[in-house]
Amino acid sequence: MNYPQIILNKGKEFSMQRRHPWVFSGAIAKKDANLQDGDLVEVYSNKNEFLAIGYYAGGSIAVRIISFEKTTIDEQFWFEKINKAYLYRKHLSILNENTNVCRLFFGEGDGVPGLILDYYDGHVVLQAHSYGVYLQKENIVKAIQSTLGSSLKSIYDKSAETLSKHFSGQTTNGFLVGCPEEIIVKENKHVFKIDFINGQKTGFFIDQRDNRKMLAEYCKDKTVLNTFSYTGGFSVYAAAAGAKSVHSVDVSEPAIRLCDQNIELNKCHNHESFAVDTFEFFKDKKDTYDVIVLDPPAFAKSRDSKHNAVIGYKRLNTLAMKLIKANGIIFTFSCSGVVDKMLFYNTITSAALESGRNIKILHYLYQPADHPVTPYFPEGEYLKGMVLWVE
Ligand code: SAH
Predict the structure, then answer these.
(1) I need a labelling partner for 347 at 20 to 30 A (CA). Which of 168, 287, 307, 360 fits?
(2) Can you count the helices (H) and strands (E) in the chain?
(3) Ligand 1 contact, 167 CB (< 6 A)
(4) What are phi and psi of 139, to 5 degrees?
(5) pLDDT score of 1 more than 90
(6) Cβ atoms of residues 83 and 72 within 8 Å
């Protein structure tokens, strides 16, 4: 099938040839005047060589690429994309007898910018971050059904909050397949209650699975503080690993309620939770904790807020470094895409200097393999962390 054509300026084909999936508006020499947001388009070089197929959007990223081959974007296309993503995770045994929750599709990392699918023991949460993906919803649903077969229990569309304001009015969140039921998933044998309808993002921060597992190795007989705990992912691992005590802190009351339920579900008794601001909580604490987790929300969502975000990360980390017991361990993270690993490292260095403590770096942490990063799209790497030893 032929789609409307977009011709690039001379030299602008190089990024496509390097398989980068974005076309910026400034790279375009010629396009159909009637193009609408979400329309499928073919991208050509100035010499009229076919480069890719994508969907159009009116913003500074004008086309997001979904295929570098000339093909028809139909039910079969979506099945191949989603089935391939599923087989990749199966191949790596990300879903196994101890874990039935993972990210099933991660945007550019799996070859479709703007498409997120999270899998909770047969329940799938779909988030379209672009209108072009949203318009393909019907075929995406069919593809999920064909891929998962009888193991599919429901598909919930949670795109109203991720589509731009202009389009979010055209949809409401809701079930496309199946209906609500209580969902309890397993992650590395630990169980978690999931509320993707009312919870933040798609209901659970699946990206911290491997890092939670590492935290458990440092928690036996320790006093542990998990700040920005959300529903207690890190807290459950720490408590189950035999921590002397675990404190969870999150400003959101519903998150803390779910955190308490998760602790109970895992039959742990060494836990207390606090629905307060982390910075407030820190105020009167000193030498209380052996292990501290710092996993704040993205302080920077755009390049404009990068500077303030760095100040925020530095302040948070300096405080934790100052108050942790001698020979303590800090797990510190940033999930801001615009703060890259070098900048995060420099921010931690500057916090370390300001804290006056002697610090060693034990590990560098990243997002797990179900949030794949490709060499063609380094921007996909958003989660970074460090494990620090504080003398
Ligand atoms: N570590 C969590 C995910 C953290 S998401 C996990 O593994 O599941 C970030 C959390 O920070 C959200 O739950 C949000 O409610 C909370 N938050 C945001 N600002 C906060 C603040 N100032 N103090 C405490 N919690 C905050």
Answers:
(1) 287
(2) 11, 20
(3) no
(4) -70, -30
(5) no
(6) no
| Among 214, 251, 294, residue to substitute to test ligand 1 (most atoms within 8 Å of Cβ) | 251
Which residues on adjacent β-strands are paired with residue 214?
A: none
Domains of the chain: 5-67 (2.30.130.10), 75-185 (3.30.750.80), 205-390 (3.40.50.150)
Contact 113 CB / ligand 1 (< 6 Å): no
For residue range 128-170, list pLDDT tens digits in order: 999 999 999 999 999 999 999 999 999 999 999 999 888 878 8
Judge if the beta carbon of residue 312 lies within 6 A of ligand 1.
Answer: no
Model pTM?
Answer: 0.96
Q: In what order do the strands lie in the sheet with 271-274?
A: 271-274, 245-249, 223-227, 291-294, 328-334, 384-390, 359-366
In this structure, what DSSP letter does residue 324 have?
A: S
- Report the C-alpha gap between 237 and 188 in whole angstroms: 9
Q: Which two tokens stand for residue 297?
A: 């929300």
What's the first-to-final CA gap in the chain, in angstroms? Answer: 64
Specify whether the CB–CB gap between 148 and 79 falls below 8 A. no
**pLDDT attached to residue 166:** 83
Give me the phi and psi of 65, to 5 degrees please.
-85, 135
Whether residue 242 has its Cβ less than 6 Å from ligand 1: no
Cβ 228 under 6 angstroms from ligand 1:
yes
What are the tokens at 132? 């072009």
CA distance 20 to 374: 10
